[in-house]
Amino acid sequence: MRIIYSFLIFSLISMSVSSCFSAQPVSRLKALNRTTSWYFGNEVSSQNKNGIELRVAYTESYGETLVFDIELINNSDKSVCISPNQCYYVALDKDTTDIGALRFAIDPEVKILELDKKIEAGKAAQANHVLYSLFSVTLDIVEDAATLTEEKTEEQRDKEFNERQEHLEFLNDESDRREEHVYSLNSQKSFWVNSTLRRTDVESGYTIKGQIFIKRNIKAEYYKLYIPIGNQRFAFDYKQVLY
After folding, report:
1. Which of 173, 194, 215 represents a domain boundary (last residue)?
2. Rounded to the nearest 5°, which phi and psi values hold at 213?
3. How many helices (H) and strands (E) does the chain have?
4. Is residue 32 part of a domain?
5. pLDDT truncated to tens, each residue of the chain (243 aa)?
């Protein structure tokens, strides 16, 4: 019986290990455009059409997301609009055959709205927790006052005191956790507000910079990244290498 039990335990452990999540391969993109330069370890591809200069650099893979730095320099004589949610790529296989539908960049305005909702929900939960904590502490005080005349051993009083302290520590820890959660959400929002490329009308003589984020296609051998600006479309080619 002991042998059977040991075998079952070993089998369960083996199944658990075999079913563990494996690490996803890391993507790196190499620019295939001819006009490139290097800036802080990033290869920058440049194109110029009708006075619109566009510089694009793949910077990193963040989980399943590809990150690109975008810089638009408007040397034309008119204003042009750039919008991240109109940027997209076409995934290609080894034979440069299209292997999937277009995949568009994440819209920062949608992310900011989602975070605003989460922040407000977090603030409400934080306020409710404060009210609950005040009620709980008040209830403890009332209970203490009601039992002042009761005869209790020192051991009982110590036990009640320790229970109250543990409860207060729990309330404080929970309050800190909720506060940190809201702080984290605000930090995320600040990033999407200040660091990402957002829909902008770029006037003549002005420049705009920011990042765009697009979920990768792990099966892609190549990407053709398209960035529409006004009535023009810029295309940048990349080869994906998985590690």
Report:
1. 194
2. -130, 130
3. 3, 12
4. yes
5. 545 445 445 554 555 545 566 788 899 999 998 888 999 999 999 999 999 999 999 999 988 999 999 999 999 999 999 999 999 999 999 887 888 778 999 999 999 999 999 999 988 888 777 777 766 667 666 666 556 566 767 777 667 667 777 777 777 778 888 889 999 999 999 999 999 999 999 999 999 999 999 999 999 999 999 999 989 999 999 999 999
Instruction: Quote the strand ranges of the chain, DSSP E.
Output: 27-31, 36-39, 42-49, 52-62, 65-74, 80-82, 88-92, 103-104, 200-202, 207-215, 222-229, 232-242
Pair (232, 185) in one structural domain: no
- Measured from the Cβ of residue 90, the count of other Cβ atoms closer than 10 Å reads 19
**What is the pTM assigned to this prediction?**
0.77
- Asked if 124 and 168 sit in the same domain, the reply is yes
Instruction: Dump the DSSP string for 43-55.
Output: EEEEEEETTEEEE
User: Whose structure tokens read 């204003």?
Assistant: 79
In a domain, 123, yes or no: yes
